[in-house]
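Same chain as my last thread, 194 residues:
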Amino acid sequence: MLLPAIAAAQETVPTIPLAPLYIPPTSTERLNWVVQGTLSLPVLGVTAIDSAWSTRANWPQEWGRTASGFGKRFADDVAYGAISNAIEAGAGSLWGEDPRYRRVPERSTWRRVHHALMATVVAPRRDGKLAPAWARYGAIGTAIQIENTWLPPSARTPQSTAWRVADDLMWRAVSNVWDEFWPDVRRRLPAPAR
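reply #2:
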């Protein structure tokens, strides 16, 4: 689904204003991005739901539909996320690729969705201009190869590996759309009773 966007990103990347003044991330902000993207409650909650779904679907089959199987899937997802995020933040720092998602100051819903989906395959550089997210691509590929060292054989096939790459990009797109629109939704919710 996102492969055409990756191809288009290599040719020309549209200029989308990120903010009035773009400030690249510091080393501390990169580290915080890795920790938040791995161990925050929302991430762990989604990881638990995904692990439960995989347990119900019994993927990979070798781990079974047991509590132990759920635990292995959960640990696998957390380890993969930590490795992928650390590689993306570290490699991206070498050429100034910003791993963070930045909301777009647009009012049009379509333009905001477009920005969220494009931010799956492009990232800002030190000057704020968007370019292909090479650190992200490298992080996904490297983390999957590392993950293959502990996954059972049924999960290491070329088809399973391709699915895991697509799954990672799909979840990043979903996360970007969530990050784009959730602050607006939250503002419209009634305040909790005290």
